[in-house]
Amino acid sequence: MDTSLSDCALILLPRISDSRGSLSFVEIGSHVPFHAARLFYLYGMPRNTVRGGHAHRECAEFLIAPEGEFEITLHDGVAEQTFLLSQPDRGLHIPSGLWISLRSLTDRGIVTALASAPYLEADYLRTFDEFLAWKREQVTQLRLAAGPLLLRSYQVSDAASFSQSAIRSAAEVGRWLAWCTPAYDEAVAARYIRDAACDRLGRKAFSFGIFQAGEDGCHLGGVALNRIDWAGRCANLGYWVATHAAGRGVGSLAAARICRFGFEELGLARIEILVEVGNAPSRAVALRIGARPEGILRNRLQRGGTSADAELFSLLPGELTSAARATIP
Fold it and tell me: What pTM was computed for the model?
């Protein structure tokens, strides 16, 4: 997600005072614009101690200073801004994608932080040069046009729609994909999105959400090139279509588009597709984009502790066909 300093906000928190002192509180959704998954706090810091010196790819934070004064300096890759946290009824919302530096202005101050995600080392950008390179990449986030469809890198803001699609498709898609269950809630979707972003940055996999083209396009499924063997110029293709979009050519069109991306942009020489025996819709997609069957691999897939045979398909650059047009209402 490409964020800037304009996305930050210093938020006034409720304060209730009487002769006994003061009380302030924070409510998720009202004051904190994300679902908090973690709380941590810094304390016992001498004056002029500097902490931070990193950025998060996906995790957002909300900072409060219940004791002491702190300078929070943020950089969005273009400009820098410093905020003062010195009152316990003030909170600073810091979205992901900003370089953070914190300096204590008093002795033994305390900073409390709410975070949108559990600790994940892969989410951190530890050097400023790495951060700047990542910000440049975010400006050109991957988006692939495919007629009435748009394939784009997932953002954390897609977690709700992703979760809803998975839950509503559990009966049909979950028959073939073990992760697609009624328990696939927003937190699980957000974790997948964070992991997918890290995999993309590490060039381990390229995952795209399938959306209806246009503003606020409906989420229709997902498609990915993963298990990439760069030396062998080979990757695996995976795809799924939400039940509400099934039977309209969405899978074929999205699969064909990401294969073209794989051949033309990534330089792949071979794309493989593993289809569980009996999965007729997935097999039809493979055939429709020009993939050729190579045989049955016994016990190749594992799902829910059960082994299943899979049919292996392969696709070479010159074999990719124009998939049938998707029909989106």
Answer: 0.61
- 291 domain-assigned: yes
Residues 188 and 314 in one domain: yes
What is the layout of strands, in order, in the sheet containing 38-45?
Answer: 9-12, 90-94, 61-67, 109-115, 38-45
Q: Are residues 131 and 146 in the same domain?
A: no
Residue 119's CATH number: 2.60.120.10
* β-bridge partners, 302: 307
Distance CA 197, CA 57 (A): 8
Q: What angle do CA 221, 223, 224 make, to 5 degrees?
A: 150
Pairing between β-strand 292-303 and β-strand 109-115 as defined by DSSP bridges:
unpaired
Q: Which two tokens stand for residue 91?
A: 């909170």
Angle ∠(2,74,159) on CA atoms, nearest 5: 35
Strand ranges in 186-322 using DSSP code E only, listed in sequence order? 206-212, 219-229, 234-241, 270-276, 292-303, 306-315
Token pair for residue 28?
């998720």
Listing DSSP states for 66-97 in one string gives EES-EEEEEE-SS-EEEEEE--TTEEEEE-SS
**pLDDT tens track for 148-161:** 999 999 887 899 99
Structural domain of 205: 142-319
Confidence of residue 114 (pLDDT cuts 50, 70, 90): very high
